[in-house]
What does this fold into?
Amino acid sequence: MVWLAIKNQSWQIGLNYLFDSSAIVKSVISFLLLDYSNYLWHILLHKLPLLWRFHLVHHTDLDLDVTTAFRFHFGEMIGSVIFRGAAIILIGASPLIVLIYEIVFEAATQFHHSNAKLPFWAEKLINYLIVTPRMHGIHHSMIKKETDSNYSIIFSFWDRIHKTARLNIPQAQIVTGVPSYPDERELTIGKLLKLPFTPIHKWKESERPGDKKFNQLKE
It folds into this structure.
């Protein structure tokens, strides 16, 4: 990714090359747009059937922890490199900002997959700005409408802006995984590698009783 940003310095393609401003302003814009592009990519992974076939591998993990942050099918990783590379070019992000973003991106991904339980006061405070383990844990829920929420990677406000945030599920009530893939024997490395190329089990719909005010935190 950094190499692509270096090459683009000679090509001078992208938003940041279309206007004059300070390096600080362009850096902030680039960082925010890089994160927003990953929010959009995450939505595409869930909404486009072909991409979901590959992203499904990530969601079949029955035990959410930092290792889940590395559980991606190589097909999704190829698509991600192409999409994120295109975003870097379109934004015109500098190599330094791309490097900083990639470091923060990896740290954030491991943090929100860690399933660490924060004190409720800390959850309320931190969640206004960044994605927490609880927020992303809801995204890994076996309940479909909960999985179809909380797509943000670093900054949580993308979900708030687009009304895709869901915060009302206490961490202890979240059951992770995909309900149509509950058997660990179906989740071996070999079977997961073949999963996108086989008929996919239909998601078994389920509801959570009393589900209201889904964008309000509950202890």
